[in-house]
Amino acid sequence: MINKVILIGNVGADPEVRALEGGVKVARLRIATTERIYNRQTQETKEHTEWHNVTLWRNLADVADRFIRKGSQVYIEGSLRTRDWTDKDGNKRYATEIVANDLKMLGRRGDAPASGADNSYGGSYGGAAQSSQSSPSPSGDIAASTPQEVDDLPF
């Protein structure tokens, strides 16, 4: 079976980054993708924007914290996950999200200012066959390890 999602979109807000009890970082991004649909009969173009919740773990969360800001254009690759919980009123709630295992920052260096001097746009982060460094290698790769269970996500 295949469960693969690929998105190219713009970040709608600065990443929400948290550290769990064991020191593991987790980040949440809201990514907007826009589809343009042309109607030949009315000769009008309409836009439809879809918002996606993306979860990044460990080193990818660190990269998001350091380099990604509202307006950044990113390439995200990951898998689709649905989780459920019961809210405080006893209602069953559901959330669908993309658990990222690859992240590429797109655009030019000056497109979305980030904290720190190095914006590293065009870098690639993640992937199972990558090295296990804690900071970008000369090629820009960082290993990512995605846990099997994301039910306890603190968002």
List keywords for this structure.
single chain, about 160 residues, mainly beta, 5-stranded mixed beta barrel, disordered C terminus
Instruction: Give the number of DSSP strands.
Output: 7
What is the rounded distance between the termini? 28 Å
Class inferred from helices and paired strands: mainly beta
Task: Give the assembly state of these chains.
Answer: single chain
Strand order of the largest sheet: 1-3-4-6-5
Strand content: over 45%
Choose one word for the global shape.
globular
Mean pLDDT: 78
Give the radius of gyration: 17 Å
List the total number of helices.
Answer: 1
Give the helix level as a range of percent: under 10%
Note the main sheet: 5 strands, mixed, barrel
Contiguous runs where pLDDT drops below 50 for at least 5 residues:
112-122, 128-155
Q: Helix and strand string, N-terminal first?
A: EEEEHEEE
